[in-house]
Design goal:
Peroxisomal Thiolase, Chain A, domain 1, 24% strand, globular, binds coenzyme A, 331 residues, 14 strands, alpha/beta
């Protein structure tokens, strides 16, 4: 029988670089309260958000992706031609086709890299990272660019006081490549489609065309809060265990930046020591879904709060409902 050759990958993969793109428009709680009946005090107490970023003039999901994607490639010491797969995690590509990834791959100057979008909402970065790790280890790709990007301001209903203060824009990217030592732990992931109606778009594209009214991102906050502080806190614990780490061996905890109260509940569940540095970028960036984890990691690395070589536990969770988490070594 003719044998079919198998691809040969690297024994391990690691993150070679991280970069982020912070949108220019600052929307503080005072401005938010001109749209909804709320207060700075209520928003801060319930979420920890002081201000959020929205895209400004000339900015969109594509420009943010090109910005952070290009810098991530540079920081990895690579050129765009070295990237052979581009994964864009987003729920902000507002056409069903084409995907954003092929456009980004072309405009970055890759040599026709494989490119696809994934729709895993706030878990999108960890989903993308799990795929990148598998591609590098299988040999299907050598260097993978993973981008999490959102412009949720475009689908935020400014008349909905239960969600308008949460959602935000931004982008973060990581380059994943081969390594002699392991830099990405086993992914712990899953879904609960029985809760698909917890976070959803209010209309399909066909309904938008038929009704002439916009489709908004809507969320039932309390079930999501309960799920995040129970099932997802436990998934985070399992991701740490799957990587073979004990809490005292962890340097950084960077959960999806949904809400500081969710982060606090996870910290209690995980019993992490005070020495662990905890991402709190929701304070200035708001909840920007797939972008939140790479943006938080980049902010911590750039400020010196986190360092190259640190171990970090990341976990994303959101619409689907879907979740994914893993331990990584920071570049
Ligand atoms: C969204 C969230 C902050 C709302 O907080 P909550 O405590 O659940 O708020 P509720 O909807 O129960 O409302 C509580 C009270 O605040 C009021 N309220 C709601 N929105 C308000 C606002 N924007 N400003 C002021 N008051 C508000 C409600 O009217 C209610 O008042 P009442 O007690 O007098 O009836 C919270 O549910 C949450 O964090 N959920 C998780 C969502 C999340 O982060 N998802 C992202 C995952 S991807």
């Amino acid at each position: 029988m003719t044998s079919i050759q198998a691809s040969q990958g690297s024994p391990y993969a690691r993150i070679l670089s991280i970069a982020s793109a912070v949108p220019s428009r600052v929307v503080d709680n005072a401005e938010m309260c001109t749209y909804i009946d709320s207060s700075d005090e209520w928003i801060q107490q319930r979420t920890g958000i002081v201000e959020r970023r929205w895209v400004g003039e000339g900015e969109d999901a594509e420009s943010l992706s090109l910005d952070c994607g290009g810098r991530a490639i540079e920081r990895a010491g690579l050129t765009p031609e070295d990237i052979d797969a581009v994964i864009v995690s987003t729920i902000s590509q507002f056409v069903q086709t084409p995907g954003l990834a092929p456009i980004v791959a072309a405009k970055l100057g890759t040599a026709g890299a494989a490119a696809f979008d994934i729709s895993a909402a706030c878990a999108g970065f960890s989903y993308g990272l799990a795929q990148a790790e598998a591609l590098v280890r299988s040999g299907a790709a050598h260097h993978v660019l993973v981008i999490g990007v959102e412009t949720l301001s475009k689908v935020t209903d400014l008349e909905d006081r239960s969600t308008a203060f949460l959602f935000a824009d931004g982008a973060g990217a990581a380059v994943v490549g081969p390594s002699d030592t392991n830099g990405i732990g086993p992914v712990v992931w899953g879904s609960d489609g029985n809760q698909a109606d917890a976070i959803f778009m209010t209309q399909s594209l066909q309904e938008v065309a038929a009704t002439g009214t916009p489709s908004w991102l809507h969320m039932h906050g309390q079930p999501v809060f309960r799920w995040a502080t129970t099932a997802i806190a436990d998934a985070a614990r399992r991701a740490l265990a799957a990587a073979g780490l004990t809490p005292d061996q962890l340097d950084v905890f960077a959960p999806h930046q949904a809400n500081n109260r969710i982060t606090d509940a996870m910290l209690r569940h995980l019993k992490l020591p005070d020495t662990v540095k905890v991402a709190r970028t929701v304070k200035y960036y708001g909840n920007n879904s797939a972008a939140s984890i790479p943006m938080a990691l980049d902010a911590m690395l750039q400020s010196g709060e986190a360092s190259s070589g640190d171990t970090a536990l990341i976990i994303g969770f959101g619409a689907g409902l879907v979740y994914a988490g893993q331990v990584i070594r920071l570049p």
